[in-house]
Design goal:
Layout lengths: L9 H14 L5 H4 L4 H6 L4 E5 L5 H8 L3 E6 L2 H14 L4 E4 L13 E7 L7 H14 E12 L4 H7 L2 E6 L2 E4 L4 E3 L3 H7 L4 E11 L5 E11 L3
Parallel strand pairs: 1-2, 1-4, 2-3, 4-5
Antiparallel strand pairs: 5-10, 6-7, 7-8, 9-10
Length: about 230
């Protein structure tokens, strides 16, 4: 498999999470999950899939609020840590390792909602269309799909601290360490989700402790029409 045609392998994500866990990973669920909680409540969602769950902070936060949650991530290192934290907190979350760019290991119409925070920008358009098709399959009619993904405004910030190994296209890179990164435009989001019910599409910015921007994303939520 040519990496310039596909997304980064699981080994890249294992290495990334080992490095993160070595220095300690903050819980960022307030920043990335909390904006979607009102939508989950408004639409009566209960069974939720966290797509690209990483070490599980969003999934665990949902479980604490009484949601029935499944989480899947490509990195076994991340999943092992998620399982450890779930056991420590006595929370029942169905964490599993899996390639979210392939067929998802869930039955049709399994979930009321799918969330995905800071994951979908790892896929180029062709792969991302397949991911979205799998989300569609796994969601019940009327279900919610909500995510954050890096915008083109984030490109300069990202490549400044993680220099590209090579550029794949005008908004696509293989970054240092092998991670693939594709910065999305508003038009990308609208086109990829044209068949869904539009709910929310807005820019959002993460700030450091001194108020300086450190990440620019699209905050997006759509509903499955039928």
């Amino acid at each position: 498999m040519m990496q310039d045609e596909h997304y980064a392998p699981a080994s890249v994500w294992d290495a990334k999470f080992r490095a993160i866990l070595a220095v300690g990973e903050p819980d960022q669920s307030r920043q990335w999950l909390d904006p979607f909680l009102p939508l989950l409540a408004e639409r009566g969602c209960h069974q939720v899939l966290d797509l690209g769950c990483g070490t599980g902070y969003d999934a665990l936060a949902l479980a604490r609020r009484g949601f029935a949650v499944e989480g899947i991530d490509y990195s076994q290192v991340a999943i092992d840590e998620a399982l450890r934290m779930a056991t420590e907190a006595a929370l029942a979350v169905g964490f599993r390792q899996g390639d979210i760019g392939a067929h998802l290991p869930y039955a049709d119409h399994s979930f009321d909602a799918v969330i995905s925070n800071l994951v979908l920008h790892s896929f180029a358009d062709a792969e991302l269309r397949r991911v979205i098709a799998e989300v569609d399959r796994c969601l019940r009619p009327g279900g919610l799909f909500a995510f954050h993904a890096n915008s083109t405004e984030d490109r300069d910030l990202r490549v400044a601290f993680q220099p590209p190994e090579r550029q794949l296209g005008p908004r696509s890179y293989v970054l240092a360490g092998g991670q693939t990164m594709h910065f999305l435009t508003r038009e990308n989001c609208e086109t990829l989700l044209a068949e869904w019910e539009p709910i929310l599409l807005e820019p959002a910015t993460s700030l450091d402790g001194e108020g300086r921007p450190i990440k620019h994303v699209w905050r997006c939520a759509v509903g499955k029409r039928h």
